[in-house]
Amino acid sequence: MDQGVLLVCHVDGDELSSFSNPSFTVHHCTSLPTSAVSASACLLARSNRNDMFQKTRDARMQAPTTFVIFYHQDATEDALLREEAFECGANMVTCYVPHVQEALNRVAAQQLQGNITCPWCGLQGLTPESFYLHQPLYHIYHANIDGYCPIKACRASTSNLARHLHHTHPPPGQKVEERTGH
């Protein structure tokens, strides 16, 4: 599998200045370049919240299929910061490097050798299994959509595509969690 591209947009000299991940070709920058469109993931870290919110909006606008991580020291303590970051287009909000690494490993593990296009972001080449893993990783905070299941063997009409995907198309051997409300 080819390595993805990871943009690490940070303040010079911060804790992410030497950040790396073996699954990605890492490019460090202090501002978001227009080449963000080709990035598999984008890690944004700034001390100024408003700057980060704007960078998150810019990253999402430039590259709708990119996994955007909003990295801020207050991420776990400030619910309003998290909510605004997700509204700006972040896929993940954290202040822990190990969690960043885990998410990037999941992004890198996506197999883009199929014929499914994600109806939320337009990422192409998903297999049924990679779509099952992609949807909650990238879109857990996005509004649900209705329509037809993009898995060609199914094509069912549904009013809740995320739930349909979770209940109908788990990877082989994975047990579906059934929620009963009790």
Summed up:
The protein is α/β, with parallel strands linked by helices. The chain contains five helices and seven strands.
Topology readout:
Elements: E1 4-9, E2 24-29, E3 41-45, H1 49-62, E4 67-71, H2 79-88, E5 92-94, H3 97-108, H4 128-139, E6 147-148, E7 157-158, H5 161-168
Parallel strand pairs: 1-2, 1-3, 3-4, 4-5
Antiparallel strand pairs: 6-7
Helix pairs in contact: 1-2
Strand order of the largest sheet: 2-1-3-4-5
Number of helices, counting only DSSP H or I runs of 4 residues or more: 5
Largest sheet: 5 strands, parallel
Question: Which architecture of the largest domain would the CATH scheme give at its second level?
Answer: 3-Layer(aba) Sandwich
Radius of gyration: 17 Å
Structural class: alpha/beta
The percent range for strand residues is 15-25%
Portion in helices:
25-40%
What is the class of the largest domain in the CATH system?
Answer: Alpha Beta
Reported by name, the CATH topology of the largest domain is Rossmann fold
As for the number of domains, it is 2
Any low-confidence stretches, pLDDT <50, length ≥5? none
Instruction: Estimate the global geometry from the Cα principal axes.
Output: globular
Distance between the termini: 43 Å
The ordered string of helix (H) and strand (E) elements is EEEHEHEHHEEH
CATH superfamily of the largest domain: NAD(P)-binding Rossmann-like Domain
What average pLDDT do the residues reach? Answer: 84
The tally of beta strands, per DSSP, is: 7
